Amino acid sequence: MFKRLVISILTIVMAATMLTGCSFFKHNNERDYRQVAAEIKSYEITNTVRNDDDEPETKVYKTQKRTIYKYDLVEYVNNNYSSLSQSASTAKGIIEAAMEMLVDTELVINEADALIDAGLVKWGITERNNVKKQIYSVIDSTILSIENEILDERDKPHIETDSDSSDAETTYPVKPVETDEDYTPEDTVEWEPELINYPGLSGDSEKRSLESEALRRFISLLYDRVKDDFRVTDEDRKKFDADKKLIENTINTKGISYVYPILGDTHYMYYISGKNIERSFKINALKDYLTDSVTVSDEEVYASYRSMLNMQTSSFSQSAAAFDSAMSAGNTVLFYPNDDYFYVKHILLPFSDAQTAELKAYKERAGVTEAQIEGFRRQLAAGIVCYPHVNGEDDLSHPMTVDEVMGEIRAKMLPLQDEDDTRLANLAFDDLIYKYNTDPGAFDNNKGYVVKNSKDGNSYMEEFTDAALYMRKNLKVGDVYYEKVITDYGVHIMYFADTTKVGAVDLYDYTTPGKVEQYYDLIAEPIRTTRENARYSTWEAEILNYNYKKQATLYKDRYSDLWED
Q1: Could you give the CA distance from residue 259 to residue 354 in angstroms, rounded to a whole number?
Q2: Residues 115, 50 contacting (CB under 8 angstroms)
Q3: Is the predicted pLDDT of residue 494 greater than 80, yes or no?
């Protein structure tokens, strides 16, 4: 349930951008939607802390009264209908699930705020910076959408974006920073957006003009978004008025581009998106607090290891299909009845959307041979434009050809291929994946893609499989295949990551030559997760469900018409 609640909060955050989605409800009676659909009364939360003398001390936190309007319920269902409909099949079920989620959210935030007030959960400059960065992610994505609307008006092509990114904050994942003590230093100064990101300051005149106009429309959108919102209080209005004066004064004295660094601190952005972003971080902090004390003993891990090993030894020895299924599914395998598998990592330098469309049209021509298609792909590959990733985004100021990228990879990897220990080569190629790769499945993938030592046993594109099998036969672990492997996706730069050996692995063996994790880690993680879920379930039963019944009042008669219409 906790995971579902966190995901739902993040969904609210995304819905809080100025872009609206489809509506499940079509009618909109303003007076009807102003009705209070649920209330969470003010109540006290008690936590025990240690004082300066290390003696137990009681900290009492008084929550604020929370109000959920019928409008909030309708808005939540409209923005999350797809996910809600997966857990309920009727309109009544969907609406009741949405109301439960809205009430649970308020109760969880109360608990998080109480823990922060007691000093049991940290909330300082680092956490506030994380919120601010996410606010700017909303700002940037909305401004980009406005830019594309303007380009539509001008009958010009859109600015290309990677809308299918697997990372919530950046286009590409950023490699985690590892230290010997697994310590992340705290921020000491407030984060501010860099000057290069200010809209309308860089690029040619056409780019500057487009970005300035998009920012101007964005500001108008902020004003309009809160203008008729009945939930806005008098205190909110005062803050909005102060924001507006500051924004208009900045435009008149410095120029519209210099409004950008102000936006993240405005009450406009806090009201529209920042509050929910802040809530999502607080919920994650609460989750960490509830589960930080969960431990898994060596004895438990060893017992699980022996059980898994015995089961796999019996199953895989008797059934090759069971082994093949485990390998293709990416399961943790402790026993190898054969060495039919190996691992490959790769960096994908992709075709652009236009190049992909060209290739598709070429392949649909009558009478085109496979050799001609291969030649056309190779011709398109010569025109691929690559960008190194900086902080998870394309560095558009540094366009590169495929040959330039391969040249850098060759310079970095060749000196490492003669080493007896392939650990450094493995880690170096991982760095290059984070710098240039665009395939979501290749990030945070210690082992790489599993390949069967048989052309018929793989589901990859033929060119990828052929190159992998060539590597298995002719190269050694730690080597890069420097030929361009071109598929319908683009150019793949491939790395021979690892082989498998017949027999059982030891509990403390490393899973890859990079020595990033041991099998111990893989086995301990599900045990820890199960225990964390149990810890949360206990908290949910003792705290959340109790407060739901005691502190919340639902006025079903005021919103039952939503499923009765």
Answers
A1: 35
A2: no
A3: yes
